[in-house]
Description:
Layout: E1 7-9, E2 21-25, H1 30-35, H2 46-54, H3 63-72, E3 75-79, E4 81-85, E5 95-99, H4 102-108, E6 114-118, H5 120-123, H6 126-131, E7 135-139, H7 151-162
Parallel strand pairs: 2-3, 2-6, 6-7
Antiparallel strand pairs: 1-4, 4-5
Helix pairs in contact: 2-7
Amino acid sequence: MISSPPMLQGFPPVVNAETHTLILGSFPGVASLDATQYYAYKQNQFWRLVSASLGTDLAGLNYEQRLQGLLAHGIGLWDVFHSCVRTGSLDSAIRDGKLNDFSMLQASHPKLRKLCFNGQTAGKMAAYFQKQGYLTAILPSSSPAYAMRSFEEKLQVWQSELRPQPQ
């Protein structure tokens, strides 16, 4: 008998009362799930892109310091999906995805105004969130599987969307 893959569980949001921008991936990859850390796969460009965009070296810090550095800039992390079935780490392999509870997040974090989607799979939800009143942006994926753009090309978009917002 062939068993079906298990339902995988994602991570809680990384947010605080000052979070104004949330970067949303689709769902953590295998390395991230194994490490219980967002963007743990060494070849993923996420921490390099965020570091260069914010002008601070988060990539050189330990995981907890990285999260605190993001939060200090008003930026949080989460994923579009709470749970899913997936073999491997590719977004194209996500099946039976269950969305995270964004209504809870919206109610408890009134400063949260902008959602930046890390890649096209997560970005499929942008129109839905625009209707909820959020500003949205679809960033080029930080995944090493997305090689159509160079790091420098990705960085230009990431910098333009993550620059500090006027108060």
